[in-house]
């Protein structure tokens, strides 16, 4: 097993682990199979135009398969969390995003409000704009973390889907206001919510 061979839209290599005896992670293998048929058909049609006959169809289909294998369909996730209390939750979800069967990738993560950068809000807003979904990792004090509350407002202003995931096993957690339903953190929920 090695690193997945797929590339992101920005040309970066996927950071997930490839499935056993395969070139791609679970996410890219499945998406390639579904979207790959269309790419193969399009390649075969174009190949036949330039090189009429069976050879053009075969060569065009092969090129279509290669192009189709590099199509990335993972969701880009912005992770919002209580920077002062729950940094490890961010690390854990980033680790899960790198698993071979993960349907999502972490594109950006929460920025600390008290960061020395005076423009952290603009950076957070830009990162949220690039994401497909915002995940709020909920700890004991997240519901009152100023940075998280601001990021939720930014996500709502941009009409982004937001989900809240309870970060710890034990405890009674309060949902972040206006950030949607609170879910347990388990692999089935993550794949369903972020897939």
According to DSSP, the number of beta strands is: 5
Provide the β-strand percentage band: 5-15%
What class, by secondary structure content? alpha/beta
Please tell me the CATH architecture of the largest domain by its name.
3-Layer(aba) Sandwich
Q: Radius of gyration, Cα only, in angstroms?
A: 20 Å
Number of domains: 2
Mean pLDDT: 76
CATH class of the largest domain: Alpha Beta
Helix share, percent:
40-55%
Globular, elongated, flat, extended or rod-shaped: what is the shape? Answer: globular
Strand order of the largest sheet: 2-1-3-4-5
- Span between N and C termini? 23 Å
CATH fold-level label of the largest domain: Rossmann fold
The number of distinct helices, counting runs of at least 4 residues, comes to 6
Largest sheet: 5 strands, parallel
Q: pLDDT below 50 for ≥5 consecutive residues: which ranges?
A: none
Helix-strand topology string: HHEHEHEHEEH
Plain-language structure description:
- 43% of the residues lie in helices and 14% in strands.
- β3 (133-138), α5 (146-157) and β4 form a beta-alpha-beta unit.
- α4 (120-130) packs across α5 (146-157).
- The mean pLDDT is 76.
- It is built from six helices and five strands.
- A five-stranded parallel β-sheet has the order 2-1-3-4-5, with helices on both faces.
- By secondary structure, the protein is an alpha/beta fold.
- 35% of the residues are buried.
- It has two domains: 1-73, no CATH class; 75-194, Rossmann fold (3-Layer(aba) Sandwich), CATH 3.40.50.450.
